[in-house]
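Researcher: I'm preparing a figure for a lab meeting and need a structural model of a single chain. I don't have an experimental structure, so a prediction will have to do for now. The sequence is pasted below. Please return the structure as tokens so I can convert it later.
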Amino acid sequence: MQRAHPDLALGYAALDTPGVLLEDACFHAQQCAEKALKALLVRHQIAFPRTHVLETLLDLLQVNDIAVPTNVDEAFALTQYAVQTRYPGDWEIVVGEEARLALTTAERVLNWVESQLSI
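Model: Understood. Here is the structure written out token by token.
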């Protein structure tokens, strides 16, 4: 979790930092969610592959009887920011509202995981 919090902070900082691409804010949102989900998997001693695919991590929680709320399960959409937007290619430029939504989603995942870790 100590790695997830800075990613969220960096993502929000990217929104207001001149010269920083909004894709970078989204990357940090994805990283925050990924690290938080992996922390929960570690807490429950659930093995997971080295992956940036959030759907895989979310599915592992669910098949191990950890109920994932729908608004957290929607975080799978952040996966696209792990790799796709970090390299030249065929993707649309991220706009401000999309970046803010990505960060809000990551924050929702982080808060939910923290609530699970305190149980």
